[in-house]
Write a structure and sequence with these properties.
28 strands, 17 helices, alpha+beta, 6-stranded mixed beta sheet
Length: 562
């Protein structure tokens, strides 16, 4: 089915629009390329996307990370780009159909019950049409997945213990069972992982958790005989139907409501997330060790780059940094598709090089490298902006301002419960003062050998993200000049209680030097210079014992005081 064919169908059946988010039945989680309906219809490959297909035109909604990329990948004659917040399709519908009387078709596997409820509240006169004819069919990969269990040596807590902690919440809400539809959370709860996705070792499964503590998993195309196919879900739900089923409607496909019926569904919210995002001591130690392993790989890569960048391409960089990580015996897979962008490509926030876009590294410019890995003991995510030759002073000064923003947040002490919005403003202030900004979040939680992006968030939209001790988050401000260069500086941190107080601070996990060639120390105050020197001293003292002489010599120079 193509966009013109869909529009012709809408015209024939007098349907005003079709709403299509970038989802599969695991809402708001990673999908494979063959499952990406928006990619197939428009050519847009970004991770933040939804379509509103009208009878005369198609509208693609994305966010600031993909403002440039979306225009490059789509046909302006077919698709109009609207770059705004995640809620904007609803605002747009409200403005586009002024009287609120319109019909909207959707696939109930791809849209959450919470979204449908919000739609109905906003548009009392609009008509929702279930795409039960399969105009746009749910795309599911047939790839076979290997399932494996994460050792308690790394998970810290057994699956049985995790399950026992949430059973009281199911019972307290008068439910007989809870249907967990987040694959990320089902993986955490059961300590199971898989290779279904290339950059995220989650098990793509639903979990039916009964109040007696038993759990039934549902997933297709796995090699685990104990996991039932998704076709068995409806039958098992009917067995619970005489009682109450707890769900989180924000992450529940509307199709489940239609299968089970609204009457006995109880929206008790997400009972897993707050437990998942507060890391136990074993997990935290795993993050610490994984970042040492990752730093060895990154230091070896940076040494190689300094001596070999001339004539190399972005794809050469991806291959090399990936190969450096793969040398570690605990390495599982990348934590996301590596971003390697030189020169003007760096201004495309989530640029991924391909055969058609691959550029030779530009001398006297910078390389923006955003990469990470999943190891058996933890997950990493790091961005470094790296000098290639002698970049112009404008780039050096811009990088220094971004560094100031990073330091401002990384050195902040703040009360427990502080929101991601408040932390975001602390970081952006340094950029705002120079009439600079960036169109992406300042930070995100990092899953423990799960999705690299999870709660809590640090962004202008993160009013519901509240920080507590033992959360792992990125801090990653940036600056992007279209058709010229891009800068981002990202470290991971965990939140730690300050001694004898109700305050939190950030404790650094990432142990890779910043590029001093891109720091104008005359733009830094004494405290900022001290922060850089203390950070580099920590990197040197922690990492030098793991390196051979040539890499140790390189690191000593990279970590020398400003």
């Amino acid at each position: 089915m193509t966009l013109p064919e869909i529009r012709a169908y809408l015209q024939k059946h007098k349907i005003d629009a079709y709403f299509l988010p970038r989802n599969n039945m695991f809402l708001e989680e990673d999908i494979l390329p063959e499952e990406n309906l928006i990619l197939a219809l428009t050519g847009f490959s970004g991770s933040a996307a939804s379509l509103v297909i009208c009878q005369d035109k198609t509208y693609l909604f994305t966010d600031g990370r993909y403002e440039l990329q979306s225009k490059m990948e789509t046909d302006p004659k077919e698709v109009e780009i609207i770059c705004s917040s995640a809620d904007f399709p609803f605002v747009w519908l409200q403005n586009h159909f002024e009287n609120g009387k319109f019909s909207l078709m959707y696939n109930p596997w791809l849209v959450s019950a919470g979204t449908i409820a919000k739609f109905c509240a906003m548009f009392s006169q609009a008509k929702l049409i279930n795409d039960d004819k399969g105009l746009i069919k749910l795309a599911a990969s047939a790839k076979k997945a290997h399932v494996f269990k994460l050792s308690e040596e790394y998970a810290g807590i057994s699956a049985e213990e995790k399950i026992s902690e949430i059973i009281p919440m199911i019972k307290q809400n008068g439910c007989d069972a809870y249907l967990l539809t987040s694959a990320n959370e089902a993986s955490w709860l059961t300590n199971l992982r898989s290779d279904a996705l290339p950059d995220s070792p989650i098990l793509r499964a639903y979990a039916l958790i009964k109040k007696d503590g038993s759990v039934i998993l549902f997933a297709d195309n796995t090699d685990d005989a104990n996991i039932l196919p998704l076709s068995k879900l409806e039958k098992n739900l009917k067995e619970v139907k005489k009682g109450k089923l707890g769900v989180d409607k924000k992450n529940l496909p509307q199709m489940i409501c239609e299968i089970f019926g609204e009457k006995n569904l109880v929206d008790i919210g997400d009972i897993i997330r707050n437990k998942q995002i507060i890391k136990n001591e074993v997990e935290l130690q795993g993050y610490i060790e994984a970042h040492k392993q990752d730093a060895v790989a990154m230091i070896k890569f940076l040494y190689w780059l300094d001596n070999n960048y001339k004539g190399k391409t972005e794809l050469d960089i991806v291959a090399k940094v990936d190969a450096c990580r793969a040398q570690d015996d605990k390495f599982l897979c990348k934590s996301f598709d590596t971003i390697a962008a030189t020169g003007s490509n760096g201004a495309i926030v989530h640029y991924h090089p391909s055969e058609s876009t691959n550029k030779v590294l530009e001398r006297n410019s910078v390389l923006l490298l955003d990469s990470g890995g999943h190891y058996q003991n933890g997950t990493t995510d790091i961005t470094r902006t790296i000098a290639l030759g002698l970049p112009k002073s404008q780039i050096i000064d811009a990088n220094t301002i971004v560094l100031k923003a990073h330091i401002a947040l990384a050195s902040t002490v703040f009360p427990k419960g502080t929101t991601g919005v408040a932390l975001d403003a602390i970081c952006r202030k340094e950029l705002w003062q120079e009439n600079m900004d960036f169109k992406h979040g300042t930070g995100h939680g990092v899953g423990f050998i799960l999705n690299v992006h999870e709660a809590p968030r640090i962004s202008t939209q993160a009013k519901n993200s509240h920080f507590a001790a033992n959360m792992v988050t990125s801090i990653e401000p940036g600056y992007y000049k279209e058709n010229d260069f891009g800068i981002r500086i990202e470290n991971l941190y965990y939140t730690k209680e300050c001694k004898n107080s109700n305050l939190l601070k950030f404790e650094v996990l990432t142990l890779v030097p910043l590029d001093k060639r891109l720091i104008n120390k005359y733009l830094l105050d004494e405290g900022e210079i001290n922060w850089v020197n203390v950070y580099h001293q920590k990197v040197w003292e922690t990492m030098s014992p793991y390196l051979d002489n040539k890499h140790k010599e390189w690191l000593e120079d990279a970590c020398a005081p400003l």
